[in-house]
Amino acid sequence: MPLQRNLSSEVSQFIAANQEEFAELLTFIDFAEKFTIGFVEVNFSPDTELLIEALKSTSECQEIQFVVLDFPDKNLRFIRDEILEILPTIQLYPNKKLVLIVRGLEKSIGVFGDYPPVLQDLNFVRDAYRKTVPHPMLFILPDYAITRLAKFAPDFWAWKSGIFRFKTTQVTKDYAMAQTLESERTIDRLPTPEQQERIDLLERLLMENKPTGHQVTGQNLRSYTNILHQLGVAYLSQRNPVRAKEYLEEAIKQVDKDSDFYAEIINTLGKAYYQQRQFDTAINCYQESLNISRTLENRRGEIASLYKLGNAYLELRQFQQAREFYQQCIEIEQQLGDRFSQAR
Question: What is the Cα–Cα distance from 309 to 281, expressed in whole angstroms?
């Protein structure tokens, strides 16, 4: 979030947008005893901070001791073991009920793939929680992580006593948009930590545009597809073509095949195959993108495809073919009068 924050004002805005859900969560906390599970859906980490601050500061929770357990490790597997190590270190306050708030688990749950190890273990050792973690627990997770937990840890999910879905505040949405889709800085020029932060924001924006169980239509469809494409670009910047293809292939399904946007996405998909050294498949993607750009008379799109075709044929050591595509790039650049690109 921006450096200059009025935390009290932001908390008030967040609660004002979620009055009913917050009241229900307070009731759940008040009645929860021993091992009790509640799931709290919050799509953006800044709003998670606001919710925790609201819980700690509200007069209704004066007799509650909240302890936040952070699990940001994407390779986490045995979460109960981690909790058991932490519990003895907690200094309990007299006459207060301990409530554990678990956050960050979405990192190890992931977005794609079957049976994340952390959920396999969560499901397998479910019965042990009653004896070893005798406290109410709130799992704060984004939409997609809750959906995956319900699917891949169904026994643990069955023990839930409440699920609370909080709306994202407009200030948080605006911040996420400014840092991702509206940013002038391309992701490949960002330091690795900032790249990962942008990916995280994009994945959460994705959930805002397509909540689980909902269809995307109208303006949201364009935004949803754009986010999918940007996630593909982002993962390619990290040289993770497998993950990039998952997003790009989903984006392709949403777009008219005779559009500039489709040509752009299929071009990016070609780059994913290129990174996997599947050059023939990459060439097919670049050629399809080139054909669409020529039909639509998109000269910039032609240049992008021709240049990548040249690169792919160069990797195949088909030098004459590569030279022909590079030459076509130069000719179009000259026609457009782009002296800077020609010199480059």
Answer: 11
Angstrom CA distances, 306 to 124, 293, 301, stand at 52, 11, 9
Both tokens of 139, joined, read 């799992």
Q: Write the pLDDT tens digit of every residue in 203-221.
A: 888 888 877 777 777 777 8
* Closest residue by Cα to residue 238 from 195, 209, 269, 200: 195
Q: Is the pLDDT of residue 4 over 60?
A: no
CB-CB contact of 187 with 235 (8 Å) = no
CB neighbours of 256 closer than 8 A, spacing ≥ 6?
Answer: 262
What is the model's pTM?
0.76
Tell me, yes or no, whether 111 and 213 share the same domain. no
User: What CA–CA distance (Å, rounded) separates 213 from 211?
Assistant: 6
Q: 186 and 135, same structural domain?
A: no
The DSSP H or E segment spanning 340 is helix 339-343
